[in-house]
User: What shape does this take?
Amino acid sequence: MSTSARVEPFRLEVSDAVLDAIQRRVSAFDLDALPARSGWASGTSPTALRELVDRWLTGYDWRSVETQLNRFPQLTADVHGTRLHVLREPGSGEAPPTVVLIHGWPSSFASFRKVIDALAHPERNGGDSETGMTVVVPSLPGYAFSSLAPRPLSFRDAAELFHELIVDVLDCTTYLVHGGDQGAPIAEWMAFDHPDSCIGLHTPLLALRSDGAPFASGLTGVDDPEPEETAFVQAEHDLNVGPGNAYFPLQLHTPLTLAPGLSDSPVGLAAWFMEKYRLWTDRRGDDGELGVDIDDVLTEVMIYLVSGSVASSLVAYGEFFDGPLTLPPGERISVPSGYAAYPDPRGVDAPASFARRTRNLAYWSSPERGGHFPALEVPEVFVADLRAFVAALPR
Assistant: This one.
C-alpha cells in the first residue's frame, strides 16, 4: 500500500449518544400531522411511512448492521484534499482480480454488503476459490464517510480520484469496475480515461453517450440511428420528465434549500428515500410496498444520518453534473464493457446497437429480476451476472 496519501484504518463505531439523538427525533415526529390519505399517488404513502417508523423504533437493529459491515476491512485515505472512505475485502485464490463497486444515490457503500462475501470467497458457497475477486467499495465524495471535496467535482473528476485511490493508495495496477446510478458515469470515465488500468467495465445503465446527446435528452447523437435507437431515446426522455422525476431538479439546482429539512428530520429523509425505493425497485410478484426489505431502506437512511452526510451528499449530487456528460466527439470507451439490462422501472432497456456506439460491448445480459438497486434486491442474481461478465472478458 502506498504511503504517499494519509491512510488510516476505519471502523464503524457510532456512539450511543448519536443513536439516541436519532431515536428521539424519530419518536418526536408527529405522524398524526400527515393527511389521512392512502396510497402513493401524491408521494410516500403515510401508511407505509407509519410502518417504517414503527419498525425503526421497535425492531430495527443498527448495531447488527454495524457488526456486519465491520467484518470487512475499511480505511480512509486523503486524495488531493478529499478524505475517501473505502472498504476492501481481499479475495480468495492465487491472484484474484480486483473489482471496484461504485454506488449512487440514495444508496451507499453498504448497499453492496450482501454481495461482497460471495464475490470475494465463492468457495464458501460451493464455488471455486480461484474465481474469487478482491472487492473494493468506495464511498462517493460527500457521501457516508467520504468528505465533500474542497472544490466541486464532476463525474469525471470523481473518477480520477477513485482511480488514484485504487492505483496509488491500494497499489492495484489493474481493476474491473461496476457502477450503478451515479456510479455508472464515474465507472465509465474510469474506463475511458484509464484503459491501461481498467480492464473491464460493467454497468446496468448507459450513462455516457455520444457527443451532443446526453442521457435522457431524447437525442441519439448520431447521423444514422436505427429505428429502435430513436424509439429508445424518446422513451427514456419521456420517462425522465414524468412525475417520478420531480426530485431531480430540486437536488440538481437547489440542494442547499432541500438539505436543512432532510438533515434535521430523520423521518423526512426516510420518506424522501422510501419513495425512490418503491418507484425504482422491481416489485413484480411482491405483495409489499417496496422491492427491498424495509430494514435495507432504514440502513441506507441510517448511513446518511450517522455519518452526517445528508447535506454534503446533496451538494455533491448536483456538482457531479457540472462537467462533461457525453464522450468527446467521435470517441468511445475501448475497454471491454458489459451491460446488464435489469427490469429497472427507473430506466428503459437500450438496444445493443445503441450501446455499441459508445463502448466496446463484450457482454450483454437481461436478468429476469432486479431493479435500480440489484445488489440489494437480488444479490444472487447480481453476483451471477457480474461473474458471467468477468468470465466473458477476453483473456
Observations:
- The chain has 15 helices and nine strands.
- The longest strand covers residues 82-89.
- The mean pLDDT is 95.
- The beta strands are 7-10, 74-79, 82-89, 98-102, 134-138, 175-179, 198-203, 333-340, 359-365.
